[in-house]
Design goal:
Blueprint: H1 11-59, E1 66-67, E2 80-89, E3 95-99, E4 103-107, E5 112-120, E6 126-135, E7 143-148, E8 154-156, E9 161-170, E10 185-194
Parallel strand pairs: 1-7, 2-10
Antiparallel strand pairs: 2-4, 3-5, 5-9, 6-8, 6-10, 7-9
């Protein structure tokens, strides 16, 4: 009795197709995971900037000065410290920026007002905002600023010159921090950076241009 030829199944081809499908599935899953990780890293980097700024302001980390609303309750003490003033302008901002005094001596706890001057040397309106810190870095949590031009964006008309006050004191509690027992000099440093898209604000009244003296 004649037997019909048997056609063998191509198992190797089926297995290859299955492996290829599984491989494509794994590749898609790996790509999705990588994309998710990148998105999380980008989001975290944006969130880190305001968190870092908040952390520095709250702790004085990296020499970031503190913001005060009034003079210290204990008043000035006999111990004195020299305060130096530094001024810098980042590339791209055509301003001349300098302190009126490069150094003064103050009692710790004494509320003091000093002035910086800034001139817009461009023939167009420009805007900038100042970043700041103090040295040594351990002093950041004790250097209290009641008023400072660095708190707001500054917009300058062509050729405009402006006097900008800084009202500050060194917190008397610094004397309890033995890490600063040998402190004799503090350097307050500002750097103005250009603002690309300044916020349009109404002109301030002439009252703000008058010197108010020490608080």
């Amino acid at each position: 009795m004649d037997q019909k030829p048997t056609i063998a199944k191509d198992d190797s081809r089926t297995a290859t197709t299955g492996r290829r499908s599984n491989g494509l599935g794994r590749d898609a899953m790996v790509a999705s995971i990588c994309g998710l990780v990148v998105a999380l890293m980008v989001g975290a980097s944006y969130a880190a900037v305001p968190f870092y700024n908040w952390f520095c302001r709250a702790t004085g980390f990296n020499g970031t000065t503190q913001v005060a609303t009034s003079a210290p309750a204990t008043g000035p003490i006999a111990r004195k410290v020299a305060v130096r003033f530094d001024a810098n302008v980042a590339p791209g901002l055509p301003w001349k920026f300098e302190p009126e005094q490069t150094e003064i001596e103050v009692n710790i706890g004494q509320v003091t007002t000093i002035y910086y001057t800034v001139t817009n040397q461009a023939a167009r309106t420009t805007a900038g905002q100042a970043a700041y810190n103090v040295a040594p870095l351990t002093v950041g949590s004790y250097f209290q600023k009641i008023n400072c031009f660095c708190f707001t964006e500054q917009t300058m008309a062509p050729g405009e010159k402006r006097e900008m006050p800084v009202v500050f004191y060194v917190d008397p509690s610094i004397v309890d921090d033995h890490e600063n027992d040998g402190l004799s000099t503090i350097t307050l440093s500002y750097t103005f950076y250009p603002v690309r898209d300044p916020v349009v604000k109404p002109l301030a009244s002439g009252e703000d241009d008058k010197r108010k003296g020490n608080l």
